[in-house]
Design brief:
CATH topology of the largest domain: Pyruvate Kinase, Chain: A, domain 1
Radius of gyration: 31 Å
Largest sheet: 5 strands, mixed
Helix content: 55-70%
Shape: elongated
Structural class: alpha/beta
Strand content: 5-15%
CATH superfamily of the largest domain: ATP synthase, F1 complex, gamma subunit
CATH class of the largest domain: Alpha Beta
Number of domains: 2
Length: 298
């Protein structure tokens, strides 16, 4: 059974660990608020961009673009796929990273001819350790994602898509459905379906025809570059928010466990201390009795 010194050292160690987990909880909550604010500031622009893409399809229903499936059918695309996997730079976030990696490995199992583009040091280390080749690893993009970093990723993916090196592009990220519910998803980024830009309710018909320069296809393709960048930026922010939320939950659980452990150790310390006091009193009492008995025997 450990003595009072060992228990006191254990209590001090748990208290230091609790300080660290509590600090990590506060840092994660601050980063979460900032990331949400950044997404809210940029969302109106991309909502307006999406509305303009809808307007193009309402104006010119026969427009053809390499970023969309044909209007009336979906041809099989069995060439090389690209997959952007968004993970964190570090752990201590529950099952956040494992869920995203599991979605990516499922896609690799279904379509082995897939090139991986990885965001986050955790994912890069995982695929390197499991001897899974990585086409490109984007460094320093998982923490505090910005629109500039999203454009950098978008440019790399669109370059491969425009050259015909990638038939499809998938996006593996964690979607934050609510503050307590988030789920890893594998979503096809390119090509889009025209139905993705269909309005849920009928809209007013365009009264005057639009003129597109140099052509409607060129205008649409140029807009899609910005839209894909915004889509990736939204996925980076969503994943970052989920990471911080998962880390907050993990640190909160760690704080609760530390409180329970401190209570158990305090009780154990008191018992050991009380036992030591009782033993000392018993030894003193027994010594005094032995002295009395010796004097009486003399």
């Amino acid at each position: 059974m450990p003595g009072t010194k060992e228990i006191k050292n254990h209590i001090a160690s748990v208290q230091e660990t609790r300080k660290i987990t509590n600090a990590m909880y506060l840092i994660a909550s601050t980063k979460l608020r900032r990331a949400r604010a950044g997404l809210d500031n940029t969302r109106p622009y991309f909502e307006a961009l999406r509305s303009e893409i809808k307007r193009i399809f309402r104006t010119a229903s026969d427009v053809d673009s390499r970023y969309f499936y044909p209007h009336d059918y979906e041809p099989p695309l069995d060439g090389t796929y690209g997959c952007l996997v968004i993970t964190a730079d570090k752990g201590l976030a529950g099952a956040y990273n494992q869920n995203a990696i599991r979605k990516a490995t499922e896609l690799l199992a279904q379509h082995p001819d897939t090139k991986l583009f990885v965001v986050g040091e955790y994912g890069r280390r995982y695929f390197a350790q499991h001897k899974i080749p990585i086409e490109h690893s984007f460094l320093y993009t998982a923490q505090n994602p910005t629109m500039a970093r999203a454009r950098e990723i978008s440019a790399r993916l669109l370059d491969g898509y425009d050259k015909g090196e990638l038939e499809k592009i998938y996006l593996v990220y964690t979607d934050m459905k609510s503050s307590v519910n988030f789920e890893a998803q594998c979503t096809r980024l390119l090509p889009f379906h025209r139905s993705d830009f269909a309005s849920p309710t009928p809209e007013r018909a365009v009264a005057e025809p639009f003129e597109f320069q140099p052509s409607v296809t060129a205008v649409l393709n140029n807009m899609m570059h910005s839209y894909v960048s915004g889509y990736i930026y939204s996925a980076l922010i969503d994943s970052f928010c989920c990471e911080q939320n998962a880390r907050m939950s993990a640190m909160d659980n760690a704080n609760q466990n530390a409180e329970e452990l401190l209570g158990t150790l305090s009780m154990q310390y008191n018992r050991v201390r009380q036992s030591a006091i009782t033993q000392q009193i018993t030894e003193v009492s027994a010594g005094a009795r032995a002295q009395r008995m010796r004097k009486k025997a003399r």
